[in-house]
Amino acid sequence: MTATPHRPHDGVFDVAVIGGGIVGAAIARELSGHDVSVALLEARDDVGDGTSKANTAILHTGFDAKPGTLESRLVARGYHLLSAYAEETGIPVEHTGAVLVAWNDEELAALPALKEKAEANGYAHCRIVGADEVYGVLPHLGEGALGGLTVPDESIICTWTTNLALATDAQRRGTTVLLRHAVTGVDTGDGVGADTADGYGGGGDGVTTLHTSAGDVRARWVVNAAGLGADHLDRLFGHDRFTVTPRRGELFVFDKLTRPLVDKIVLPVPTSRGKGVLISPTIYGNVMLGPTAEDLTDRTDTGTSEDGFDFLLTKGERLMPRLLAEEVTASYAGLRAAIDHPDYLIEADPAQRYLLVGGIRSTGLTAGIAIAEHVRTLLEEAGLKLRPRGDVPEPPRMPNIGEAAPRPYEDAELIARDPAYGTVVCFCERVTEGEIRDACHAPLPARTPEGLRRRTRAMNGRCQGFYCGAAVAALSARHHPDDGCGSRPAPCGRPAQHKDNR
Amino acid sequence: MTQPPLITPDVLIIGGGPAGLTAAAELAGRGAGHVLVADREQDAGGIPRHSDHTGYGLRDLRRVMTGPAYARHLVRRATEAGADIRTRTMVTGWADEHTAEVTSPEGRYHVRARATVLATGARERPRTARRVPGDRPHGVYTTGQLQNLVHLHHQPVGKRAVIVGGELVSWSAAVTLREAGCTPALMVSQYPKAESYGAFTLAGRTVLGVPVATRTRVTRVIGKGRCQAVEIEHLDTGLRRRVACDTVVFTGDWIPDHELARSAGITLDEGTLGPLTDTALRTSRPGVFAAGNLLHPVDTADVAALDGRHVAGRVLAHLDGADRPAPGVRLIADAPFRWVAPQILRPSDPAPARGRLLLWTDEFARFPKVTIRQDGRTVARRTLSWPAAPGRVFRIPSTLLAGVSPTGGPVHIGLG
Ligand SMILES: Cc1cc2nc3c(=O)[nH]c(=O)nc-3n(C[C@H](O)[C@H](O)[C@H](O)COP(=O)(O)OP(=O)(O)OC[C@H]3O[C@@H](n4cnc5c(N)ncnc54)[C@H](O)[C@@H]3O)c2cc1C
Ligand SMILES: Cc1cc2nc3c(=O)[nH]c(=O)nc-3n(C[C@H](O)[C@H](O)[C@H](O)COP(=O)(O)OP(=O)(O)OC[C@H]3O[C@@H](n4cnc5c(N)ncnc54)[C@H](O)[C@@H]3O)c2cc1C
């Protein structure tokens, strides 16, 4: 990589993006396509370890958004941008389509309004269908469906690969990825809230210092994409405009043997509380049931609960009783960053050279790249000079961990070239030694068993490690003898320069 | 992608555990031709490879040895008989009804054999499949993973463990934990008394010193990062409490590794969830047979091995074109039995392996009175001198079926 112009000057980055989720990674990628130096700061030891790892992974058309909102616009645009980006980078996508099912007269009566809403959102392909057609495409659906609305372009996508592709791309474009950098304090140079006429912040050096768990990072501009932590961070900048409520969503993932039961996303009629409990094929060849929606106070509580399980099982019994007769492969919970504001909250503060991206609750996977575009425009309007680079590197080609396209274990030519792809290590998910090796040596390598799961699917299958757990651990330790799938030095370690300028 | 190469052995055995290896030794030794064993692990041998304690080989080899020694013995015997054992060789699916798709470091290829034996074994249900909620910390295992970690990879586990389940294998987990320097602090079982062999239970309580909480289930796993505790509930009182531990081992609660059988479209038994088989171990697909814990989750290794020996006869007859199964009657397990294996009785077939039917019970009976009924008629009733206990296979002599009418309706096997 020859991204020299994008190194921080005197240890000061042009922009620091806080949060290595899909939104932060997309913003870092977008900005580093321009002539600026960018740092991406992430509190945890991997990118994509927050809400972006635990969602329902649907690439939304935005048919059910609230028309006229920023969210409606960015989801619709994000759908197209991410679809195209997925094709370029190899992020697994399956265009399954969805059927929204009405189970009572009230829901049936709501379908025409939903269709109109879709049209108001710029999505014109929904069709209202009768019960016969619903059962025609979903033969295993439980009894009692009265009709439905088809959404032919609703799709499923790999959220893990999406986050990794965006972060890897950002890094290739010169972004310095700083893991284990939790921002704990902010110093905008000459006092919080300084406002001057030149739009470049306080009269001082126009540089904000971010105090992090791994030392200070200095940058002229700061973007807050901290998801569940965005309100706390916003307060460090002296604002008091919103509060994040973690809204937990619990999910069951059923055995791959259930995949023939359902070929489309099965949606409920949405309520004010959210999108409701759905059944969806997953990109890894399973079927998922969920999510619940429950407001919590603890922003770290990604545990699952008895009540959540009971609720899902009751719903599932109605939606697709056959599904519940099968084995559960995994269960997990994600936390939506719900806020007391009906739309995305994306605002620039030119005086502080600071921009907030808040309240990206249940559509951020889809909208991420479009949010990044929007953020770029707002930053330019706020005074950040962004000149597109002529030398933007090609986006990365990501390993395919989706079930629809051929995987390495099926690829005779690949195995002939490198037998490591012929050694299956995780049997249930058919992950090979070659893929595990690659993940440990990737530009953003797997550092933890969880990181390895997200890059390869290893240990995600029905046995959950009965056969392969120990072998996978040994293999990753071999590739990173220091700390399991441990950290590697460059390119994403701590750059020396910001020690110099503390 | 180009079409993968095809190989055409006489017999393909999928799974090189005790059942597959014993079938291979028998078939190769009796002139079945090219007998190919595909096993996906680094070494063949199946579960005994990492079950590093004694107790293997009693019924098949008439001596007792450790799991790893037993596994090596079976591999050697099959190899010496002329079987072609290929490790790191995984059957991943089917190209057509009789052609298996295989991935190995030697390449991706297809195998079309004249006869196939499924011997893929069984696994323990992990925590997720048991739908136990809570956090997702490190330190939560099945016995299989625990023994792999400790015996094959010499990795450390925690200091204080809770063992979930009271089956034979649960005590095996306790032994492994002790060896790894981890104290088994509590064993939790839903049944009224900890199952498994009385002697072992006694040994467990005294020698292993593991307290057992009966009529108890785990309701939550607690801990961020590393496991800190589990919450348990007494089934009768509903009382809950936390038990501190950094390790949890979910033991037993077996399910056959039936993916290949299912994806082949072979009929499964609803009780065992393994392939539906007759006493000659034929599946619903002609030319495809099955053996071992895939059929009965789970019995001991020697019983799996003797299935392997048993299936060989019928595979040879099939290869000779001399296998013509007669119509049979269904065997049905009535409560408290959960399943019976095998499930089909045909008039001209041999008795099942070892002359035993295998059953799984949900209730303890010290002196079980086994009743066989067909079309409303009691065919046989006998009180057995060995107990039927949850958590381990209950075996009954197949001679109890002597009076079954081959043209009658389903045969019900129950108690009392
Ligand atoms: C149950 C559920 C289902 C969903 N389903 C879908 C769906 O089907 N389709 C869809 O498009 N969207 C869906 N979403 C929404 C989507 O997952 C989110 O909108 C998206 O992941 C948000 O990304 P993010 O980057 O804003 O947040 P995150 O992924 O949470 O990233 C924020 C990052 O910031 C880091 N951070 C926080 N504070 C600090 C700090 N002080 N210093 C440094 N780093 C910090 C965190 O560690 C985290 O990694 C769903 C969400 C949930 C919970
Ligand atoms: C912890 C523990 C302790 C035990 N202790 C005892 C004991 O003391 N005494 C005793 O007698 N029994 C004991 N058992 C039971 C014994 O291990 C089993 O009964 C025996 O291993 C069953 O043999 P099997 O051949 O049916 O299956 P397995 O041993 O499970 O072998 C199945 C083989 O098939 C292979 N395979 C599966 N799918 C594929 C595929 N798609 N492609 C290629 N290969 C595949 C697997 O890799 C495996 O090697 C114990 C079991 C456990 C888990």
From TrEMBL, chain A:
Q: Which ranges carry the BFD-like [2Fe-2S]-binding domain?
A: 424-475
InterPro entries to which the protein is assigned, alphabetical: BFD-like_2Fe2S-bd_dom, BFD-like_2Fe2S-bd_dom_sf, FAD-dep_OxRdtase, FAD/NAD-bd_sf, G3P_Oxidase/Oxidoreductase
Which parts of this chain are annotated as the region Disordered? 479-502
Gene3D superfamilies named among the record's database cross-references: BFD-like [2Fe-2S]-binding domain, D-Amino Acid Oxidase, subunit A, domain 2, FAD/NAD(P)-binding domain
* Record-linked CDD domains: GlpA-like_Fer2_BFD-like
The protein's superkingdom reads: Bacteria
Q: Which SUPFAM superfamilies match?
A: FAD-linked reductases, C-terminal domain, FAD/NAD(P)-binding domain
The residues covered by the FAD dependent oxidoreductase domain are 14-375
**One Pfam family cited in the UniProt record for this chain:** DAO
UniProt xrefs under PANTHER family: GLYCEROL 3-PHOSPHATE OXIDASE (PTHR42720:SF1), GLYCEROL-3-PHOSPHATE DEHYDROGENASE (PTHR42720)
Q: What is this protein called?
A: NAD(P)/FAD-dependent oxidoreductase
Organism from which the protein derives: Streptomyces tagetis
TrEMBL record, chain B:
Q: Which InterPro entries match?
A: FAD/NAD-bd_sf, FAD/NAD-binding_dom, Metab_Enz_Cyan_OpOx_G3PDH
Q: Tell me the GO molecular function terms.
A: oxidoreductase activity
> Where does the source fall among the domains of life?
Bacteria
Q: Which keywords accompany this UniProt record?
A: Oxidoreductase
Domain (FAD/NAD(P)-binding) spans 10-305
- What name has this protein been given in UniProt? FAD-dependent oxidoreductase
Species the sequence originates in: Streptomyces tagetis
What taxonomic classification does the UniProt entry list for its organism?
Bacteria, Bacillati, Actinomycetota, Actinomycetes, Kitasatosporales
